[in-house]
Amino acid sequence: MNITQLARRLRVPADELREKLPELGFDIGQKALKVPDRDVGRIMSAWKAYKKRQYLAKKREEQRAREELKQKVVDGTAEKIEIPAVVTVREFAERLNLPIAKVMQELMRAGILASLNERIDFETATIIAQDLGYITEHEGEASKGRQEDEGVDRLAEALKASDDDALVQRPPVIVIMGHVDHGKTLLLDTIRKTNVVGGEAGGITQHIGAYQVEHNDQKITFIDTPGHEAFTVMRSRGAKVADIAILVVAADDGIQPQTKEAINIVKASGMPFIVAINKIDKEGANVERVKGQLTEFDLIPEDYGGKTICVPISAKQNQNIDQLLDMLLLVFDLEKEKIVADPSRHALGTIIESHVDKGQGPVATVLVQTGTLHVGEVVGLRGMNYGKVRAMKTWSGEDVKDAPPSMPVRVLGFKSPPSVGDVLEVPENPKDLEKLKAQPHKKAGAGEITIASTKKVQAEEESEDHATLNVIIKADVLGSLEALIGMIEKIDNPYVSVKIVSRGLGNITEAEILQAEATNAFVAGFNVKVVKTAERLARDKNVKTGEYTVIYKLFDEIVDKLKLLVPAEKIYTELGTLKILAIFNKIEKGIIAGGKVLKGEVRLGATARVLRNEEVIGEGRIATLQAGKVDVKDVMQGAECGFTFEGKTKLEVDDIMEFYTEEEKERTVEIEGAN
User: N or C: the chain end with fewer CB closer than 10 Å?
Assistant: First the structure.
């Protein structure tokens, strides 16, 4: 047999075969053109055994390398990478800095068949990454945790550094938490004797508010956190700056999802709390049922023999409010030793809320936690010069020159709106921040806003089975913007996703419209307006915009738009296979050929995959079909036929053709995270 023919059968270059044959015991010479026929069978068997040994050696080496990588993960010496909650295979490979083929191989090894643009969740990515010798962590969590820890550390350091003699009692900071529409804001409204609820869109608190009141000559600071599920991050943040929590539960509704979340936050923080069972005046109110539900969370009410203080109230009817405040001061009295600060030191506090005022520029609500903040002081955030305090106002609008510990104030004078949750600090030496004054800052409301989030919204590449909705979001305050981003990040669907093209504060301007035109994006505004010139431009450019005052209505709009983008399901029906027996003629769009149906049927108009040596080399369509020189619509198994094949693939005799049909069916899907 010709050595080239043998090499072809063994699927190896002829030169390589010549080189390896002596190792296998067949010395035929380096220039030999033929192999004795008696040796062909033996060579093929020896070659098969050689390839098997080679394969097993490779597998053992791969296994050894994999075990070494896994050991690095166990030892904690492996490289750490950040992975978002959902990531495409392509981006996953890029983050690992590995060839896509290797990553896909590992996925297949784990029984996962995924394309380049297919998405995998964090858990799957973690398993694969560990097999490849990497330690994973949620994207954003590490830096977010470091920032939060840094803030907590700075506050702890400040208190530790203070002279015990300088520490004085400060007003307690109370956070009001609970489920949406359980009466948190109305309770605070009753305590403050003002009307906030009336100004809330849809009766739902959209941002964190901080207020200070007096009861029995004792000042008390309250933080009102939104109850809707969109505000998880904001609610958690409100808890971190508070000393005592009031958990509001409606007597007619009982414990709900956000109630459970609030309980978990409070428990995790170790914060003392009181349960206010609200709406006892309503029909269907059942205080005992709520108390029973509390026991399921190991919160045993006092009259059940436990330590959980429960006060039945009606915020609407101003019933038992004084009793609630008395119990609050009682808890405060027990915690007095911990609720202290040094008013003589430089101020340190937390940004509770931030927005851009049309006339005053960037404004932030600051809760001073230690020290005293003075008008005229330079303030820093994250080591940067963030401006000079031009003015301070209380929640009621009163101008103040000084803000002592536990006092919430609206601060004017920031260069740009700070991020909610940032720790504000007045430096010991303002000159430490002087060098940063020269650094450029983005114009307030005009640029992108950096938002701390648990994961990054991924930009999905458009594919046949995946569509992306581009969105531009503008909001009035950072807290609301954070909440919106948080809600969108929860959206999960294998067929559609949201890409946030840009986000920012302030009204929607021509810049957003032009950006939307370039990116085919929907522009959504929360508590902001589309300026007149931008409105006209949007009409001219056919850009869709929306203005919303209730946050979950904006979210619902995005979900509705996503559902319209869900691609139809393609249903493939396999028809049969045919072997090409003859090639008759080449035409402009394809080839006229003949063949025999091996299985199933051949159908006019069907799509055909062309296989050569068991590999797919192309596709095409059956444009005409004949049996016995008669045009037919189908030909069954065992029969011969002639046909016109339309396609770019060049057919050859003995090629196999697989026929199938393709139909589209509308998908009915749920958008995870929208419920």
Answer: C
